[in-house]
């Protein structure tokens, strides 16, 4: 454990010098006339976290928000640089699941008290807890838990004659879309969203990207496996098919939504916010919007939808750890999870959060049930302090998608192992 922590710290040390004397993203954690100000660094959203911060401010402290960059990897870089410098001006952080283990292993997160851990574990979905645990302890408080479902145009499915009440495979979608002039919209740009897709495909085929993560850089990489071969085959077939969007190699969540809303829109995998995405701009698409369980990688095997979300952690270097722990308990309460979900479309990390009355007015009961079913079945990315290295190596070897072949999984596995052991640089 100590050796791994030292390694993580060394990786951050080189970037600490890039912080200006005044600090990137100026923040405050000072005593004021009305009490303490706690600074919460948040990922960009539609105002949900800001509203929750207002709800959870008290006579003893005010929670102020600072917005991090749009990209999850850039969020990681900005926070890690300052935490490596033991910056006391960060109190609370919204952390993307793949970086939770990295921050915890580096000693950046204040330990959550046992009683609060217990309450959080009891209220949260299992997938949310699994993504928030490192070294046997809950290290962040699950706030929202996102999952992807299969969105489809009902008119297209009817025209193509595909029964969307039954499980469908990726290959079925590709063939159906290609035969009927439609597209399958995904996230395949050279960014974390593509790693999410690869992970879901491998997990859906019964595999994992890596196991034995307690061994640090000596973990077991399992990309070169039958599941990895199945994942590569799915990507290869879609990329070579007329069903592939023209912008496949640069597609992200937003461009996928645009493709789906266009004249060739047929199928799309994307996050929960899509249900309200077209309300104001394309009501005709909203009226035509269907939803189903994430596609299967292999016939007869249940799909493993992607898991995303946010956990809220307290900086080990905050001067107000006790107050910050009280704040994150309020922030991640089921009611405030519901408030955030109503505003942003990012769904709660707890079943109780789904009982927030406003959600039943926005989402059909069947869709809320599908979200929760998908969370129960979701496949988080490998929980390891070295995920950023693994993801970078995946992207280097699987992108662009039209270059993916049967040789990609073994090539990818070799590159991941070489990067982890310092034999290659990304």
Strand fraction equals 15-25%
Strand tally: 13
The overall average pLDDT, rounded, is: 92
Estimated helix fraction? 40-55%
Identify the CATH class of the largest domain.
Answer: Alpha Beta
Family: Belongs to the bacterial solute-binding protein 1 family.
Protein name: Extracellular solute-binding protein
InterPro entries: Bact_solute-bd_prot1, SBP
Organism: Nocardioides iriomotensis
Give structural notes.
It holds the Pfam family SBP_bac_1. Belongs to the bacterial solute-binding protein 1 family. Residues 1-26 form the signal peptide. InterPro entries: Bact_solute-bd_prot1, SBP. A hairpin with an 8-residue loop joins β9 (210-211) and β10. This protein is of the alpha+beta class. It folds into two domains: 2-139 and 308-368, D-Maltodextrin-Binding Protein, domain 2, CATH 3.40.190; 147-306 and 383-420, Periplasmic binding protein-like II (D-Maltodextrin-Binding Protein, domain 2, 3-Layer(aba) Sandwich), CATH 3.40.190.10. It contains 19 helices and 13 strands. The longest helix is centred in the N-terminal third of the chain and has 15 residues, at 2-16. Strands 1, 2, 3, 4, 7, 8, 11, 12 and 13 form a nine-stranded mixed sheet that branches. It has a two-stranded antiparallel sheet with strand order 5-6. The chain has a two-stranded antiparallel sheet with strand order 9-10. The protein is globular and about 65 Å long.
């Amino acid at each position: 454990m100590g050796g791994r922590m030292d390694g993580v710290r060394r990786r951050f040390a080189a970037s600490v010098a890039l912080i200006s004397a005044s600090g990137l993203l100026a923040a405050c954690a000072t005593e004021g006339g009305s009490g303490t100000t706690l600074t919460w660094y948040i990922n960009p959203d539609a105002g949900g976290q800001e509203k929750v911060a207002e709800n959870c401010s008290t006579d003893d402290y005010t929670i102020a928000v600072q917005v991090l960059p749009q990209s999850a990897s850039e969020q990681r870089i900005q926070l890690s640089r300052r935490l490596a410098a033991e910056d006391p001006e960060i109190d609370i952080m919204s952390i993307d699941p793949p970086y939770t283990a990295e921050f915890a292993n580096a000693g950046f997160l204040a330990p959550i008290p046992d009683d609060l851990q217990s309450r959080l574990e009891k209220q949260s979905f299992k997938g949310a807890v699994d993504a928030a645990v490192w070294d046997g302890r809950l290290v962040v408080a699950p706030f929202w838990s996102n999952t992807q479902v299969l969105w489809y145009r009902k008119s297209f499915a009817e025209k193509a004659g595909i029964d969307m009440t039954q499980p469908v495979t990726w290959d079925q979608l590709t063939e159906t879309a290609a035969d009927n002039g439609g597209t399958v919209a995904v996230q395949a740009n050279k960014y974390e969203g593509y790693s999410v897709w690869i992970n879901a495909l491998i997990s859906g085929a019964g595999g994992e990207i890596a196991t034995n993560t307690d061994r640090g850089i000596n973990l077991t990489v399992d990309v070169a496996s039958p599941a990895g071969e199945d994942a590569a085959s799915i990507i290869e077939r879609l990329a070579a098919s007329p069903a592939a969007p023209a912008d496949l190699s640069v597609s992200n969540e937003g461009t996928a939504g645009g493709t789906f809303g266009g004249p060739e829109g047929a199928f799309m995998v994307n996050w929960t916010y899509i249900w309200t995405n077209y309300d104001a701009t394309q009501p005709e698409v909203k009226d035509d919007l269907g939803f189903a369980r994430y596609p299967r990688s292999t016939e007869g095997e249940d799909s493993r939808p992607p898991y995303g979300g946010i956990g809220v952690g307290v900086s080990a270097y905050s001067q107000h750890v006790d107050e910050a722990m009280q704040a994150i308990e309020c922030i991640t309460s089921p009611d405030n999870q519901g408030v955030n979900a109503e505003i942003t479309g990012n769904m709660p990390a707890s079943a109780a959060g789904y009982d927030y009355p406003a959600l039943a007015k926005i989402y059909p009961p069947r869709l809320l049930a599908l979200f929760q079913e998908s969370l129960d079945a979701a496949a988080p990315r490998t929980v390891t302090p070295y995920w950023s290295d693994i993801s970078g190596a995946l992207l280097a070897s699987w992108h662009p998608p039209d270059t993916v072949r049967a040789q990609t999984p073994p090539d990818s596995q070799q590159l991941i192992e070489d990067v982890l052991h310092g034999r290659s640089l990304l």
